[in-house]
Amino acid sequence: MKKHIFAICDPEAEYARNFMDYLNRKKNLPFEVQAFTGSESLVAYGKEHRIELLLIAEEAVCGELRDMDIGKIIVLTEGVGSAEKSPYAGVYKYQSSAQVVREVMACYGEEASVLPVQSPVLKKTTEVLGIYSPSGRCLKTSFALTLGQLLGKNRPVLYLNMEEYSGFDSLFGKNFPANLSDLLYYVRQGEQNLTARINSMVQTVGQLDFIPPVQSPLDIRGTPWQDWICLIREIMLHSPYETLILDIGNGLDEVFQILDMCGRIYMPVLPDKMSCCKLAQFENLLRILEYPQILTKIRRLQLPFHSELEKSDFYVDQLPWSNLGDYVKELIRKEMI
Question: pTM for the whole thing?
Answer without folding.
Answer: 0.85
